[in-house]
Amino acid sequence: MLPESQKQIKLASRPHGKPESKDFQYEEISVPEPGDKEVLLKTIYLSVDPYMRGRMSNAKSYVEPFKVGEPLHGGVISKVVKSNSGLFKEGEFVIGMLPWQEYSLASEKEVRRVDPSIAPLSSYLGILGMTGLTAYFGLLDIGQPKKGETVVISGAAGAVGSAAGQIAKIQGAKVVGIAGSDEKVEYLINTLGFDKAINYKTCGNIRDALKEACPDGIDVYFENVGGEIGDAALSLLNKFARVPVCGAISAYNNTEPDIGNRVQGILIKSSALMKGFVVNDYADRFKEGASQLGKWLAEGKLTYEETITEGFENVPEAFLGLFNGNNLGKQLVKVSKIE
Amino acid sequence: MLPESQKQIKLASRPHGKPESKDFQYEEISVPEPGDKEVLLKTIYLSVDPYMRGRMSNAKSYVEPFKVGEPLHGGVISKVVKSNSGLFKEGEFVIGMLPWQEYSLASEKEVRRVDPSIAPLSSYLGILGMTGLTAYFGLLDIGQPKKGETVVISGAAGAVGSAAGQIAKIQGAKVVGIAGSDEKVEYLINTLGFDKAINYKTCGNIRDALKEACPDGIDVYFENVGGEIGDAALSLLNKFARVPVCGAISAYNNTEPDIGNRVQGILIKSSALMKGFVVNDYADRFKEGASQLGKWLAEGKLTYEETITEGFENVPEAFLGLFNGNNLGKQLVKVSKIE
Q: Assign residue B240 a region: left if phi > 0, alpha if psi is -120 to 50, beta otherwise?
């Protein structure tokens, strides 16, 4: 039995600096009826990701800004509860970019089936989904680590960083992670097999700590964080180093311009490459990436962690926690039970 | 008849900030005798280049620092005045990385013959030499401008910038130059055929001026300057823009860290690429580059300007002038007559 009404989360206001609860507004709306070639979906897992902060601002970016007064949306795993599409049956699971609602409508073209008998449902939002693919393409296409090279990963215990570091290990690189707690450092070394890990909050001078951890310099710096951590890593680049620029979470909540070391001199000295990217740049290679990630996962070469917050009422809190580094691995919200 | 003694220029002290005359020391030394497989060379043209500033500091870079108390050196065109080598005859002209001296010795492997009947001698230090090749590989290999794209060049009236801009025009791009005087702006537009040029000293806000000159954004930014000009250009990059980072002359004399806009956010938004390089990265393709540059020169598609300072006693002054933008095109010092 479907309820008569459900909840939706709208962007109440554009955050100034760090987002706050007041920037999100819950609204009671009806549960819609699917039209022709549409499905009604019940949200199971909802992904909250740092990149969403960018969409909450009214600035030109690679995706359109969210609109104030309209529902937020992102990666969601749902169960089909009503289907007017020949492509999907009730009870099947799908993934799509969907609004932050307990129930939502989608046209049959907007979603894609996922199979919980192949991999856990949540993994399609993480290691087998956008975050895994982000790590895969950023590291392999831009970073191109070679055997024996030193790869440094910032935000290393996050969803993308932990995948990128493991992929670098598979390539035979020495991997040094930077994270924000001793628990994360322990996880990187003992569970993921990183060669070294640094707690940037307790290490003292981060450049000195990195220099000590990377006696041969840095060949690949996978950038998730920016700020002073980025400055430190960039200052240690080797000749022909590569820097996939995936994120700069330290700057997402800045209200002033992000000021730090200019990189021109560094890049000239090292003939190094920095390249920004978003996973959609690689849309025509997603199949390749997902297939390889699935293979490594099945072979036990890749593992992942999830931080799962329970309840639709806790979506904003889970999102806000990303900027405090509360999550280990992929941060998800479990909105309803799978069965 | 050879003189008994000659002059040499040594690095007297490492410059603090902007180099000064006192950092250079003239010394009277003997004119040496060539040994086996050596030639004695009389300096005709001596190249002074911004990159030499980096070598005057005691910092790790892509080339070894100059040593205090030892002669400076760089690109030089010389005439063979005595030869103990079967490869070179007296009266022939050669190019090499040679000390700043009126006469110098070189082993036959250190120099390469240049032919003044093919192109003016000085051009082998400029458009057909390191500066032309720097523009060629930086622009074409990293910048990869496509027809109709917008290419912005800083330091556009310098030796590398003016070549890069013309090569971009040959590729069918719209080219916008940034330079430091009205005379240079006039030269870029009327002599080199740039589409637009900006005098950064008089344009007011450089970002606004660039935005107006580039209504379709920037697809390639050829970086010679860095600093606020670089910040402005980088802020206007289009999706998948490319930034060959060739120089950062605005920062070469800095005594403090070079602080400005961090680029991570910009690169992510635009999926843009920045790559530092030095011409020697392309050593195995010099033949290809020189041959193409020579062809364009012969076809009249490429032109160049030289600023020639006369007299060995004026080498430091010519070098120092680079940092005031005194030069139009390639800055050389003519040390002796060709005949």
A: left
A196: Cα within 13 Å, side-chain hemisphere: 15
Rounded to the nearest angstrom, the minimum Cα separation between A201 and chain B is 21
* A265 contacts in chain B (CB < 8 Å): 226, 248, 251, 258
Mean pLDDT over A17-30 rounds to: 96
DSSP A265: H
Helix (H) or strand (E) holding B229, with range, is helix B227-234
Could you say which of A246, A247, A259 has the minimum Cβ distance to residue B262? A259
Q: What single DSSP character describes residue B331?
A: E
Q: What is the pLDDT of residues A306-327, one digit of tens each?
A: 999 999 999 999 999 999 998 9
Q: Which residues of A touch B (CB under 8 A)?
A: 54, 60-62, 223, 226-227, 230-231, 239, 245-248, 251, 257-278, 281
Give the span between the Cα atoms of B154 and B141, in whole angstroms.
Answer: 18
Residues of B with CB under 8 A from a CB of A: 54, 60-62, 223, 226-227, 230-231, 239, 245-248, 251, 257-278, 281
Q: What is the mean pLDDT of residues A43-66?
A: 89
**Whole-number Å distance between alpha carbons of A12 and A55:** 13
Instruction: State pLDDT tens for residues B239-275.
Output: 999 999 999 999 988 888 899 999 999 999 999 999 9
Smallest CA–CA distance, residue B224 to chain A, in Å, is 9
DSSP string across A231-244: HHHHTTEEEEEEEE
**Chain position carrying tokens 């912005």:** B152
CATH topology of domain A5-126+305-334: Quinone Oxidoreductase; Chain A, domain 1 (3.90.180)
Q: For chain A, give every domain's residue range.
A: 5-126+305-334, 130-280
Domain A130-280 has CATH 3.40.50.720: yes
Measure the N-to-C terminal CA separation of chain B; round to a whole number of Å: 14
**Alpha-carbon distances, residue A331 vs A131, B49, B124 (angstroms):** 11, 52, 60
- Tell me how far apart the alpha carbons of residues A119 and A295 are, in angstroms, rounded to a whole number: 11
Residue A185: C-alpha distances to residues A50, A151, A192, B276 (Å): 21, 16, 10, 33
Phi, psi dihedrals of residue B287, rounded to the nearest 5° = -60, -45
Q: What is the predicted ipTM?
A: 0.94
Q: Which one of 3.90.180.10, 2.60.40.10, 3.40.50.1820, 2.40.10.10 gives the CATH number of domain B5-126+306-334?
A: 3.90.180.10
Q: How many degrees, rounded to 5, is the angle at CA B53 between CA B47 and CA B55?
A: 95
DSSP B20-74: -GGGEEEEEEEPPPP-TTEEEEEEEEEE--THHHHHHSSS--SSPPPPTTSB-EE
**R_g of chain B, CA atoms, integer Å:** 20
Q: Distance between alpha carbon B44 and the CA centroid of its chain, in Å?
A: 18
> Cα(A248)–Cα(A54) distance, rounded to whole angstroms?
11
Whole-angstrom CA distances from A129 to A112, A167, B108, B318 are: 12, 15, 61, 58
